[in-house]
Write a structure and sequence with these properties.
The chain is mainly alpha-helical and about 325 residues long. Helix content is about 70%, strand content about 0%. It is built from eleven helices and two strands. Strands 1-2 form a two-stranded antiparallel ribbon. A hairpin with a 4-residue loop joins strand 1 and strand 2. Helix 3 packs parallel to helix 6, helix 7 packs antiparallel against helix 8 and helix 10 packs antiparallel against helix 11. About 35% of the residues are buried.
């Protein structure tokens, strides 16, 4: 009993630490807190600074007028960003529709079906797609995808002419679909990598129980892996969407750069990032034009923040759902 109250070495108690020894922990805690607060401060600073620079455009056209007006005419000094917003959303939606299923399939194959000696090389090859510069993707789209896919696109739109937004178009070359296809390839590494990590967290007991009950490999994937990973996959898809929304050079080269809302999937269009890259150099002599481009950047900034916030919401909700499921299983 006496040994419990005696100091071990010097003035340091056995069951506790001196205030001086806890000082590094406090410094680390407050340092990390300051860094986190600085990030939030930078985000707020970026927003305020962009709004100040974009104020001439907002003052002239209004916030909603600028965002939802369908008229981007540099010659007449009229700027409405709706064609740019639509182009950004259409190309990003095409990227999700094509890229996310492929990424999920690739992650499933690597984690559940691939032979052991091939998992490493296939994983490296998927991750290497993220190392290719976006301008290379854009040039590949211009010189390979656009001429090679034009006959197939024309056949598709003629065959399905009864489908709204798809049929009845005259394919001119660069278009929404090519831009979305390039973006689908570009978001494939990030979506696949996050999906692989999420699927790796599925408890082996769930998979073994499904197989023990007589489920086939596909039924085990459908009943055990996909439901458990749904929230994480959704978060990965939303992060991929944020990546697609902000892409600039590759989309600029293949989307057509037409400041109007296309009536078909194979029409030319424009995106928020592409218009900034194309026109910012020539906007230095026109304050309203420059402010309109910065306002387009602000709209893109807000859109990206919203997408990432939605992704974070789904990830948190999925984590809570897994904890609740585990607590129910333990109680049972």
């Amino acid at each position: 009993m006496e040994s419990a109250t005696v100091s071990a070495r010097g003035d340091r108690p056995v069951f506790g630490r001196s205030p001086l020894s806890r000082l590094p922990d406090q410094i680390l805690k407050w340092g990390l807190t300051a860094i986190a607060a600085l990030i939030l401060f930078l985000i707020g600073f970026f927003f305020i600074r962009l709004y100040i620079e974009a104020h001439p455009a907002f003052a002239r056209f209004g916030v909603f007028g600028f965002t939802f007006d369908n008229n981007w005419n540099v010659a007449k000094n009229i700027y409405g960003a709706l064609p740019l917003v639509v182009g950004t959303l259409v190309t990003s939606a095409v990227a999700l529709l094509i890229g996310v299923p492929v990424a999920i399939a690739a992650a499933l194959y690597v984690t559940e079906l691939c032979p052991g000696r091939l998992k490493g090389p296939l994983t490296i090859l998927l991750d290497l797609l993220a190392a290719v510069p976006s301008v290379v993707y854009g040039l590949w789209g211009v010189f390979v995808l656009v001429p090679r896919l034009k006959p197939a696109e024309q056949w598709f739109t003629d065959t399905f002419s009864f489908v709204p937004f798809i049929g009845g178009a005259h394919v001119a070359g660069p278009n929404y679909f090519i831009g979305g296809l390039i973006l689908a390839i570009m978001i494939l590494p990030i979506v696949s990598a996050i999906t692989r990590e999420v699927m790796a967290t599925v408890p082996s007991d769930h998979k073994e129980a499904a197989l023990a009950l007589g489920a086939t490999r596909w039924e085990m994937i459908r009943m055990a892996i996909l439901p458990y990973s749904r929230a994480g996959i959704t978060g990965a898809a939303m992060l991929g969407l944020g990546r697609a929304i902000g892409e600039t050079i590759a989309v600029t080269l293949v989307v057509g750069n037409a400041p109007n809302i296309g009536k078909h999937l194979f029409d030319q269009g424009y995106t928020l990032a592409a218009v900034i890259a194309n026109e910012f150099g020539e906007a230095a002599s026109n304050p309203v034009h420059r402010a309109a481009l910065i306002a387009a950047g602000l709209v893109l900034f807000v859109l990206t923040l919203v997408v990432n916030a939605i992704a974070r919401f789904f990830v948190i909700r999925g984590s809570r759902g897994r904890r609740d499921t585990g607590n129910v299983a333990v109680t049972a």
